[in-house]
From TrEMBL, chains A, B:
Biotin binds at Q113, R117, G118, R119, K184. It is an enzyme of class 6 (ligase). Residues 80-253 form the BPL/LPL catalytic domain. GO terms for cellular component: cytoplasm. Residues 18-37 bind DNA. GO terms for molecular function: ATP binding; biotin--[biotin carboxyl-carrier protein] ligase activity; DNA binding. This is Bifunctional ligase/repressor BirA. Its EC number is 6.3.4.15. Pfam families: BPL_C (PF02237), BPL_LplA_LipB (PF03099), HTH_11 (PF08279). Keywords: ATP-binding, Biotin, DNA-binding, Ligase, Nucleotide-binding, Repressor, Transcription, Transcription regulation. NCBIfam families: birA_ligase (TIGR00121). The gene is birA. Belongs to the biotin--protein ligase family. HAMAP family: Bifunct_BirA.
Length: 318, 318
């Protein structure tokens, strides 16, 4: 009902009378007042003027499901949204939901994570209300070894959403970091629940530094606001990320990996360059030559041997 | 303390006086009596004779941690045991434990599962107290695509334990069924929690029909008691399974897959034979030629093409 009241307020530019709302939604004037009070308590600014009624002045800077859903226009991604002020990690929630038959496209947002995580058990800093901390649950009919494709698909989508919202060209540091001016602005963590021959579900964790203050971030990191020199609308960026992921995911499952791979290559920060990698507890270097059909990196060693690297850490780019 | 009393009773052939127990363990006579009463309530048969003391007559037919641990002599597998009368599935418990940092080798037993599961979401019948329903949590430094090796390692271990306990030669129907006289006596379910380039943990679910009555099992299934025409000690079989798994797991991680693969091939019910497979939603047939270094089946199609099959259902063997 709160959502219907919001939609009603949003539909009008000026004031809406409590009487109109009450009549339209078949609830009492007292109920209207209670819902308005409730909306104010979660951060909506709603003006009330006697004889004129209510007017929506601003929405809270939160990734509330009713705001993310509004005009989202996706068919899968974000049709089912869970929202938390604070969680250990949205990935923990995503696993619970995965085991409990949550549908493909379920999204979990948190304003703050106490134990946000990155690859290989690393942590992800999650200052309250400053970034995007989300997990997306997918159930593709892929083999487990195809999962890297999903990481690359998500990376491409985040780059497209950043471009659309801020005009900034971000680059992908294989396999899962998004960089601006060589500093990390977003990361992707792919976790898989599988049997040897099929994926049961995949959780894609996405962390984006949006309005974090530069000085509070690690040296090698940046935020969208720091790079664009203005605050960035978390809600609109989030909605665009969901939209681009849906578009690219449908391309991936319907048409295959080719066009995602091409987009990915166009945004790569390493292809054609000499890199040093940390991979399976050893250091290897060579030229980052290509991405293969599974999303693995093809590294041309000095010996000429082409090494296929599923995932690793790029520690140096020349 | 109950466990120490049990060990004390087990160490003597005849009666042990309450006074001796009380002195040895530094507890009161009343405490001794309470522990004895408690042991009786969980199924231990303990005789008490005035002036003579206590005598252990029999242990309950349950996979109690104190019984499984007794003389187990493993270093990893089963050092940490969880036991339940009834669970949905030991795999559910294993995932919870995996996420909560349970150590490698943790084992979960249940006397009964309300939602025991097999591959591809199939169910596994779990009559109370008649079979072995367990999950084993491992944390090998493997790539996710190497997980089939663990399924084969477990299959080999179960065949060895069945042979040791009953003298029966069981065979492995690739990838995860154990057969006696072409009927299914045990199954293995491998579930993996991973990132694209590393396994975080693997749960190996093992179901063995031990003392189930033949007429209550599906047509294509059998039990060890039905095949050996006598009841089989669940506890000793279980302990042997844990011991053989430990042995073979250590071989696998220290010396590689070679010798497990050779053992596996020696117990295979399909190698060298013409089979029909259900695989990735299609039917293929050919000769089961070999198992490769990742544990995948190499199927020689009629065209001569060798197809590499990660997992599937053998639906016909000629």
């Amino acid at each position: 009902m709160a959502r219907q009241i919001l939609d009603f307020l949003r539909a009008k530019d000026g004031f809406v009378s409590g009487e109109d709302i009450s009549r339209e939604l078949s609830i009492s004037r007292a109920a209207v007042w209670k819902h308005i009070a409730n909306l104010r308590s979660i951060g909506y600014s709603i003006e009330a003027v006697p004889h004129l009624g209510y007017k929506l002045l601003s929405i809270p800077d939160k990734l509330l499901p009713e705001e993310v859903s509004h005009n989202l226009k996706t068919k899968i991604v974000g049709k089912n949204i869970f929202y938390y002020e604070t969680v250990t990690s949205t990935m923990d929630m995503a696993f619970d939901l995965g085991f409990n038959a949550a549908p493909e496209g379920t999204v979990i947002f948190a304003e703050h994570q106490t134990n946000g995580r990155g690859r290989l058990g690393r942590s992800w800093l999650s200052p309250k209300g400053k970034g995007l901390y989300m997990s997306l649950l997918l159930r593709p009919k892929f083999l487990p070894q195809e999962a890297p494709k999903l990481t690359l698909m998500a990376a491409v989508s985040i780059v497209e959403a950043i471009k659309a919202q801020t005009g900034i060209s971000a680059f992908i540091k294989w396999p899962n970091d998004i960089l601006i001016e060589n500093k990390k602005v977003a990361g992707i963590l792919t976790e898989i629940d599988s049997e040897p021959d099929r994926i049961k579900f995949v959780n894609i964790g996405i962390g984006v530094n949006i309005n974090s203050i530069r000085s509070l971030l690690p040296d090698a990191a940046t935020s969208l606001s720091a790079e664009s020199k203005k605050s960035v609308c978390r809600l609109e960026l989030t909605k665009d990320i969901l939209r681009f992921i849906e578009k690219n995911y449908l391309i991936l499952i319907n048409d295959g990996f080719d066009s995602i791979r091409e987009k990915w290559k166009a945004s790569s920060s390493i292809l054609g360059r000499r890199i040093k990698l940390n991979y399976q507890n050893r250091e290897v270097s060579g030229e980052a030559q290509d991405i293969d059909m599974d999303g693995a990196l093809l590294l041309r060693r000095d010996s000429g041997f082409i090494e296929r690297v599923l995932s690793g850490d790029v520690i140096k780019v020349n």
